[in-house]
Write the structure tokens for this entry.
Amino acid sequence: MTIPRRRFLSWLGTTSLLGAAGTPSKAHAFSRSRERSDEDHALPVAETWDMSWTARVTGKYKAVFDSPEAHSGAALFRAVAWREQYKEVYGAEGSDTSAVVVLRHMGFYLALDDEYWTRFDVGKELKERDAKGKKWATVNPVGAAAAAGSPQSAKYTISSFLATGGVVLACGWSFGGAVAQIAKADKLEREAARARAKEMLIPGVILQPNGIFAALRAQEAGCAYVMAS
């Protein structure tokens, strides 16, 4: 793995598309959730993308945590902390809060399993250190292996977050970069590489057309927006 952005530009075949995928305005950060039902939203015209997650965003309190950078899983940590703090302050139970995490751009790597992280030196690419801070990370910091033997860390894994009602969305454009990398490394045709890349997604992570789409769609479902990484 060398320069993902360059690879993504090559894969997309245009710079204008990536240019449209900039960070949402900071004016939207911590914006109040729109008090309306998502039931009046248009339905997908095809089944290409799984949008069923929107039906799970039903809590009284809703927030989407946008993660364009990995930062050791900071977005996931903040999403978990937000839910715990709403319970501490307001007595909100699990069903009262709906937390959505969007993994895009360099944050997308958090959606991939330890095999991908080890094989393609993701820790070195992202300058992510291991738990001791001495070597480059060889496993996903929010994957199952990173939390092994630590009950405190276990609740900040993607699998634990999903098990407690969280939603994790991943950028389809960034996924395309992983597909291209696997295709090149294993000399696979695109469809075979895509199938292999899907196997390396952490179970329960839902691909979306791209990360900006996911963040905006979560806001349309009533989530307040937080730039979380």
Summary: The mean pLDDT is 85. Strands lie at 61-67, 97-103, 167-171, 206-208, 224-227.
